[in-house]
TrEMBL record:
It comes from Tumebacillus lacus. PANTHER family: MANNOSYL-D-GLYCERATE TRANSPORT/METABOLISM SYSTEM REPRESSOR MNGR-RELATED, MANNOSYL-D-GLYCERATE TRANSPORT_METABOLISM SYSTEM REPRESSOR MNGR-RELATED. Gene3D superfamilies: Winged helix-like DNA-binding domain superfamily/Winged helix DNA-binding domain. This is GntR family transcriptional regulator. Pfam families: GntR. Keywords: DNA-binding, Transcription, Transcription regulation. It comes from the Bacteria. InterPro entries: Bact_HTH_transcr_reg, Tscrpt_reg_HTH_GntR, WH-like_DNA-bd_sf, WH_DNA-bd_sf. The keyword Iron does not apply. Residues 11-79 form the HTH gntR-type domain. The keyword Transcription regulation applies.
Length: 320
C-alpha cells in the first residue's frame, strides 16, 4: 500500500513517514511482532533520504511503538511492550523487586536491603559530582548549549571543547583530555575524535536531532516571508540547512548571517520577518527585533537512547 508522501505541503517528510507508519499499524497492515522494512528499503520505496526514514523510526521507537533489535531489524511492539516502555516506573519497581528477592535469598533482611541500597545510591551520587566529562563538538553553539543541557541532578560538570580549537591547540588542550574520565562527541565526529585521542580515552557518541517543534514551526512559516538564520558559525548554519533538507524543507529560501558586530545585526534583522537563531545568540538577536517578527530558536536535543546510554556509562566509569 503506497504511503501518501506529499513534498510541497509544508509538513516535514519524516513526520509524514511517521504518521504513515502509524496509519499502517492502526489499520492492521503491520501487526504486533511484524518486522518493518529496513531504513534503506523504505527510503528507496518512498524516494526520500535514509535520514528521513531514520528520524521517523527513532520518533516511533521513543514513543514505544517500534522496537529496534541490533542485527535483526525494527519491529512493531505489542500493546504490552508499549505500555512497559512508557511506564518506566513500573519496570523499575519490578527490577527492585527482583533485587530484593535476591537479597533475601542471600540472607539479608529488608531493613538491611533498604540501608545498603541507600548507601550505594549515595556513593554513586557523590562519585558523579566528581566525574570529569569532556564534550567535543564542531561548533561553539552546540558545544556550549549541550555542556549546560547535559548536566544531571548529581551536579555533574561537563567541559565544552570545540573540535577545531583542539586540533589547532592540541598540546595546550591535551591536559583537559587526560584529566577527563569520559569524552563525549556526536556520531558525526566520532571517528575523527577517536583517531585524535587514540586509545587513551573512552569516547562515547551521542545522537543529536533537531527538536520536532522547531522543524514544525519553520514548516508553518507562510510563503513570501523573509527568513534569516543568525548564528555564530558557518558550520552551525550548514547543519541547520542540512537538517531542513532532510526534513523535506530545502525549498524554503533562508539567508544565513554569521554577523558579529551589533551594528551589522541592527542593520540586517529589521529587514527580516522570521529569524531562525542558534541558542547562543537568541538574547542578542531579541534586542534588535520588534513584536511583529517571529524568532525561532533552532534547538538540537540528544535522543532518549543516547541520554540513557550516557547515564549508564557514567555510573560504570572506573577511574585509573
Amino acid at each position: 500500500m503506497p504511503f501518501p508522501i506529499v513534498r510541497k505541503n509544508g509538513i516535514p517528510l519524516y513526520i509524514q513517514v511517521k504518521e504513515a507508519v502509524l496509519a499502517e499499524i492502526k489499520g492492521g497492515v503491520w501487526k504486533a511482532g511484524d518486522k518493518l522494512p529496513t531504513e534503506r528499503e523504505l527510503s528507496e520505496k518512498l524516494k526520500v533520504s535514509r535520514n528521513t526514514v531514520s528520524q521517523a523510526y527513532q520518533e516511533l521507537e521513543a514513543e514505544g511503538v517500534l522496537s529496534s533489535v541490533q542485527g535483526r531489524g525494527t519491529f512493531v511492539c505489542d500493546r504490552d511492550d508499549a505500555v512497559r516502555i512508557e511506564n518506566r516506573k513500573d519496570l523499575l519497581l519490578k527490577i527492585i523487586d527482583v533485587a530484593m528477592e535476591e537479597g533475601l535469598q542471600l540472607g539479608f533482611s529488608l531493613e538491611e536491603f533498604v540501608e545498603l541500597t541507600s548507601i550505594r545510591a549515595q556513593e554513586k551520587l557523590d562519585f558523579l559530582s566528581q566525574v570529569r566529562v569532556l564534550f567535543i563538538e564542531c561548533n561553539r553553539e552546540q558545544v556550549d548549549y549541550f555542556a549546560k543541557r547535559l548536566q544531571f541532578d548529581a551536579g555533574l560538570s561537563i567541559t565544552p571543547l570545540v573540535l577545531e580549537d583542539f586540533k589547532q591547540n592540541r598540546e595546550e588542550m591535551m591536559p583537559l583530555v587526560i584529566a577527563a574520565d569520559l569524552v563525549i562527541t556526536t556520531f558525526f565526529h566520532y571517528d575523527e575524535v577517536k583517531e585524535l585521542l587514540g586509545v587513551r580515552k573512552n569516547v562515547l557518541a551521542i545522537a543529536l536531532d533537531p527538536q520536532l517543534e522547531t522543524i514544525v514551526r519553520i514548516a508553518r512559516v507562510p510563503a513570501g516571508r523573509k527568513i534569516g538564520l543568525v548564528c555564530k558559525s558557518d558550520n552551525f548554519a550548514g547543519k541547520v540547512l542540512l537538517a531542513l533538507k532532510n526534513a523535506g524543507l530545502d525549498g524554503i529560501d533562508i539567508k544565513t548571517f554569521t554577523l558579529k558586530s551589533e551594528i551589522d545585526l541592527a542593520e540586517v534583522i529589521p529587514q527580516l520577518d522570521v529569524i531562525i537563531v542558534s541558542p547562543g545568540r537568541r538574547r542578542e538577536v531579541e534586542s534588535f527585533t520588534n513584536r511583529r517578527q517571529e524568532i525561532i530558536e533552532f534547538v538540537y536535543k540528544p535522543d532518549v537512547a543516547s541520554i540513557n546510554l550516557l547515564r549508564a556509562a557514567l555510573i560504570d566509569i572506573r577511574r585509573q
